[in-house]
Write a structure and sequence with these properties.
The protein is α+β, with helices and mostly antiparallel strands. It has helices spanning 2-20, 55-66, 73-88, 150-154, 162-177; strands spanning 23-24, 27-28, 53-54, 91-100, 108-122, 124-125, 134-135, 141-142, 159-160. It is built from 5 helices and 9 strands; from the N terminus they run αβββααβββββαβα. Strands 4-5-9 form a 3-stranded antiparallel beta sheet. Strands 1-2 form a two-stranded antiparallel ribbon. The protein has a two-stranded antiparallel ribbon with strand order 3-6.
Length: 184
């Protein structure tokens, strides 16, 4: 009885994943870090984790969908749209750098620094316009990592690089397997 129950649960989970992919002006994008269990709407978690599109969580979801055997058109479209969105929201020419900061708790601080050729993504992005945002324990959105308190700036992954491997290595292999032209 377990295989049938597991298969049914997996099917319901995939349906939930597809329902939670965010649309902007009718176009599928990525997924949020959290969704309300009942309404499936974007949800807040900790004070500094506001409702948002998430580069990090979207990568995990896309990877999961790409592992499915015989994905239907709806799953393929979700994957392609997620990849296109990640490519659209990438941040180029900057990196997070740790610098000496005497007199601070760790003696170091994190800053956003120019870095030609570097590519990264924000952990959280605005649901309407994809702009990265940062938030301290006060729960108030800020435009830059420098605007949040030292403890949150240095104690959380505000930028990520994992979408790079997904876009440049994993997705092309998946797309070739299913006869999908690389879209980007």
């Amino acid at each position: 009885a377990y295989p049938d129950k597991c298969a049914a649960a997996l099917k319901r989970g995939i349906t939930c994943i597809l329902k939670t992919q965010i649309k902007q002006n009718g176009i599928l994008t990525g997924w949020c870090a959290q969704h309300d269990a009942k309404t499936l709407q974007p949800a807040k978690a900790r004070a500094y984790e506001l409702p948002s599109l998430s580069g990090m969580e979207s990568v995990g979801i896309i990877r999961f969908l790409m592992r499915l055997e015989n994905p239907g058109a709806e799953i393929k479209n979700a994957i392609i749209a997620g990849i296109q969105w990640l490519d659209k929201v990438k941040i180029t020419g900057y990196k997070v750098e740790e610098v000496e900061a005497p007199g601070t708790a760790k003696g170091k601080d994190r800053i956003l620094a120019p870095s030609p050729g570097n590519v990264m993504w924000a952990r959280f992005m605005d649901l309407e316009n994809n702009e990265p945002f940062f938030c301290g324990r006060d729960g108030i959105k800020k435009k830059t990592i420098a605007d949040i308190e030292y403890e949150r700036r240095n104690g959380y992954a505000w930028y990520i690089t994992t979408p790079g491997k997904l876009i440049n290595e994993e997705y092309p292999k998946w797309a070739a397997k299913w006869g999908i032209k690389k879209i980007m």
